Amino acid sequence: MSETQDKPAAGNQPDAAAADQTKAPDAPDAPYKPVIAAKAAKRANASVIGMVIALLLCVLAFLPIVLMNPAPKGESFRPPIDVASIAKNAEGVAGFTPVSPDTGDTFTPNYARWESGSGTGVPTWEVGYLTPKEAFIGVTQTNKANPTWTLQQTGNLPVTGTRNAGGQEWELRDSGKEKRSMVLEYKGTTIILSGTASLDEFATLAAAVVKSADQGTAPSGSASPSA
User: Is 104 a residue whose pLDDT tops 60?
Assistant: First the structure.
């Protein structure tokens, strides 16, 4: 075999190099795009639609309940307190007829209760009222008052005079600021009004208290002096 047959022809080398140089560069890899089958996409859409329908059905089911039980509006809502009924229930254990003043729509009761007096030794009938001017007056009544208890109930306020209300002379104890009390010994019980309302509002409620006491049955016992 000759030497010329083992070597490639010199003329073919430039052509090969040119072919390598003109060869196009590899194209960059295209981003992968997942493909969802048509049946799978249909099932996914059906699931979403089903969830929406179920949610709407739940809303429609609870809507009548919400409409029939509207929520209280604002802070002005207060549950009704039937003072007369609660007082009647307390009469059996009180030993006297608890007052249940009729104030119409002007004074709003926010509690009415019988307290056994386990802490003070003096069982009491208690009613709280919000006045037309949004002040507060608490009514406390007992047939077992004593001077110490009365001082505690009136906040140790000094006696500053008297105030006529409901045809009765109430003892007035006033702080000279907002707090004041009116005390009345009537029909065998001690009745104390205490709060931050004006004297006019005190007098209005006190008159209703006296009227209620006059309509009740007078108890057999008598209260101790309040001072």
Answer: yes
